[in-house]
Amino acid sequence: MRSRPLHMLLFFAITFVGQASYADEESEIVVGQTVMPVKRDAAMHSAPSPNAPPLTWWPGTCVLTVRGVTGEWLRTDRGWIIKSDVVRCDRAIAFFTDEIARSPSVFASSSRCVARMAANKRRPALDDARDAIRLDGSDALGFYCRGLTAARAGDIGTASADFRRATALDESFGPAYVDNAKTSLEKGDPRAAVADCDEAVRLAPSWAEPYFMRGFAREQMRSHQEAVVDLTESIRRDDLNGEAYRLRAIVRRKLGEREEAMRDINESIKRSPKFAQSYLLRALLWRDDGNKGRATDDARTAVRLAPDLEDGHGLLAALAYDGADYDGAMREFDNVIRLNPQCAMAYTARAMIWATCPDASRRDGEKALVSANIGCNLSNFQKPQHVDALAAAYAEVGDFASAVKWQRRVVELLAAEGASRASRAEQRDALQLYRKARPLRLKRVEFVFSMKVE
After folding, report:
1. How many CB atoms lie within 10 A of CB 10?
2. How many Cα atoms within 13 Å fall on the side-chain side of residue 271?
């Protein structure tokens, strides 16, 4: 399934609360709002007290999410900070504009850059980053912020170069290591991401995000047990981060730890009740258990919260097929294709229904051939699940010679991928079926869900 670039998902996952300007009368900061530090020496503490041990962090590089309020102290996703040291994000651009007019500084320009990025104003943000670099080319903060603007634009190479420049200027600049890890993940290099996260953990062992990103990278490396350890450490440092629970649930599902995965996804939903992907994952867990009713309820909730969620429509299609609602399945796969015409899996799933449905009135070999060919072309005929649908479509129209030809290709592709013995045996069984001039009939159509961190 198509997903947005990682940096669009992990840089500035911010929702502004309210639209008041900085000139408005002061109002209370509440849980769920986002804030920014107003000075470079703002301190972050391990508890709501000026005497509590300070935490390592880098003011001017981040937007803080308020997790709790205790008197004059705010609990954030990075630790405790006093209210007088922050400004609400919906007022930050105006605040730092006044600061720049009064006394230009790298910190003020960089902070306004971050605030503008959070408000989806990338071009003005880039101007701020450039101003910060012009003010002091030896300060890592300006290059780091310029890297953020490049990452938001999808220019991963430039972003990585700027993050590396920042760490060259200041080897202790933790955020640049974390965000460079994200660029490494974009480039498909999770090992490099782990190395950068290792350095960030060394610099700031109390910070949750490096553990989260290292857990994400290790999940990509299929080091699932290590990923669980990292995600547990991230949650221990920020137990209100619903996304960390969701990712740990994904990993635990892959490990076969169904009860633990369900506990984690419930915790994720409790913390982020409007995040559609969490309901989608819980729907998959219910489907794993054979509870189609609860799976369908959660999948529908996911689609209601995010109508353009491709995987949500895909899961609803699979659940409809499980319940012999073939029209419903086709309708949802059509929705997936409407949302993403390049989704090879949707064409393949649709072809499998037309080619193998146990209800003869729903089969249409010619339509199956057209849809299967689209899926195969989109994947360059290199994915066994797509070629499998093509073989089934040929069998349905009675061209068993072509069905045998393409099914042999499926077996070859599975062997090259190192697929399980059971998967290869299943496809060899289909090959024998075609050799006997018999079409394939399936009671269940599998749809591959991306379940990425979104």
Report:
1. 22
2. 22
- Locate tokens 């101003």: which residue? 131
Tell me the DSSP string of 288-327: HTT-HHHHHHHHHHHHHH-TT-HHHHHHHHHHHHHTT-HH
Count of C-beta atoms within a 10 Å radius of residue 358: 11
* CATH of region 6-168, choose from 3.30.200.20, 3.40.640.10, 2.40.30.10, 1.25.40.10: 1.25.40.10
Q: Tokens 């509590």 label which residue?
A: 52
Quote the DSSP letter at residue 54: B
Query: Is residue 302 within 8 Å of 328, Cβ to Cβ?
Result: no
pTM of the predicted model as reported, rounded to 2 decimal places: 0.82
d(Cα 340, Cα 29) in Å, to the nearest integer? 40
Q: Report how far apart, in Å, the C-alpha atoms of 180 and of each of 91, 141, 142 are.
A: 29, 14, 15
pLDDT tens digit sequence for 97-149: 999 999 999 999 999 999 999 999 999 999 999 999 999 999 999 999 999 99
pLDDT at position 447 is: 53
Strand partners, 88: 35
Cβ atoms of 333 and 317 within 8 Å: the answer is yes
Instruction: Report the C-alpha gap between 385 and 329 in whole angstroms.
Output: 18
| pLDDT tens for each residue of 253-279 | 999 999 999 999 999 999 999 999 999
- Other Cβ atoms closer than 10 A to 327: 9
